[in-house]
Amino acid sequence: MSGFTQQKMIEMEAKCIERFAGNPIITPQDVPFPCERVYNPAACMQGDDYVLILRVDQPDGKQCLGLARSKDGIKFKIDREPVMVPAENEFGHLNDPRITFIDGWYYLTYCSDPDGERLREEGIYLCIARTRDFKSWERIYRSQPDNRNAVIFPEKINGRFVRLDRPFRRGYRAEMGYDIWLSESPDMQFWGKHKLLLSHYDVEWGSHKIGPAAPPVKTPAGWLVFFHGAFIPESENTGWKKWCCGRCKVYSAGLMLLDLNEPWKIKAIRKNPVLVPHTDYEMNPVYRPDVVFPCGIIPEADGTIKIYYGASDYSIALATAKIDDLLKLLDE
Ligand code: BMA
């Protein structure tokens, strides 16, 4: 990918997406239980409350999920205890949650994976749990490895639940090449009719891998879908670095529009990324610079959306945009 640089990507960003001036809105210091990093949050409404489900990486290397509530979507108060801890078969890891409310249930997708050598042997699992009240959870689905990054559409389409996900089609340590797929389910447990939706070959700035970001947002024009893409800058794209899963990748976000009734059809896609890391909290070198990773979107009554994203795998940031402006981007 010659000539394509992070600087050029930053210039391509969508000007209609505005970062909140008080970012980051949640940092590890705000979490009232052991927390080294807090990022990549799921987002939904429960009555009048904005709810974020937080990915919390703990100092002992384990992960759990925290729950944060807010009345304005900006100032959050975090529960004193984690809202979910790993089950016995989840290797001490729960991460990258997304949440969708349908028919009285909040469905949470997340993934779990073991550390080190066991990762190679066992792989990464995609899981779905559901709750009505954020107190008790029912685990209802666990994929075969490797899969992660699932988002569930906020309503059934043609009578079925629909999800986007990102299986690892060529083995976890493969050089590159993970894509976004769509599948359907009658009950959230049996998933089938898998279809390739978007290939990484078609996303220049996500040429290493792509994945769905937050659950789709319904608009009259179609389903608005944010997705993430990882790109290895040319300077890093040689020798062993090409294989590394470490700090050289740049994670940005892109946008596409899917057909309302046949969501496996892409109606429009923005060629350039819409959100590219460049602020200090997105370039934070403490853990992982060059990362924006949206996992939750709240559509508001006034036609705007709030986008919650992990910044540098360390803190949580907020951006806003008007849906109409985003749809216009797709027309350009
Ligand atoms: C992805 C996931 C995310 C993480 C991102 C950037 O592969 O592991 O949880 O935010 O990398 O490190």
List keywords for this structure.
332 residues, mainly beta, Tachylectin-2, Chain A, five-stranded antiparallel beta sheet, four-stranded antiparallel beta sheet, globular, binds beta-D-mannopyranose
What is the CATH topology? Tachylectin-2, Chain A
Q: What is the arithmetic mean of pLDDT?
A: 92
What is the overall shape?
globular
| Order of SSEs | HEEEEEEEHEEEEEEEEEEEEEEH
Q: Strand percentage, roughly? A: 35-45%
Largest sheet: 5 strands, antiparallel
Rg value: 18 Å
Which segments are poorly predicted (pLDDT under 50) over 5 or more consecutive residues? 238-245
Q: Which ligands accompany this protein?
A: beta-D-mannopyranose
- By DSSP (H or I, 4+ residues per run), the number of helices equals 3
Cα end-to-end separation: 23 Å
Work out the helicity level: under 10%
CATH class: Mainly Beta
Describe the model.
This protein has helices at residues 6-12, 116-122, 323-331; strands at 18-19, 37-46, 49-57, 63-70, 77-78, 95-102, 105-112, 125-131, 138-142, 147-152, 161-167, 180-185, 192-198, 209-212, 217-219, 222-231, 250-258, 266-269, 292-299, 304-311, 315-322. It is mostly beta strands and 332 residues long. It has a single domain, classed as Glycosyl hydrolase domain, family 43 (Tachylectin-2, Chain A), CATH 2.115.10.20. The strands form five sheets. Strands 14, 15, 16, 17 and 18 form a five-stranded antiparallel beta sheet that branches. A four-stranded antiparallel beta sheet has the order 1-21-20-19. A four-stranded antiparallel beta sheet has the order 2-3-4-5, with no helix packed on it. It is globular. Beta-D-mannopyranose (BMA) binds at residues 40, 95-96, 251, 288, 291, 293, 310, 313. Beta-D-mannopyranose is lined by residues 40, 95-96, 251, 288, 291, 293, 310, 313.
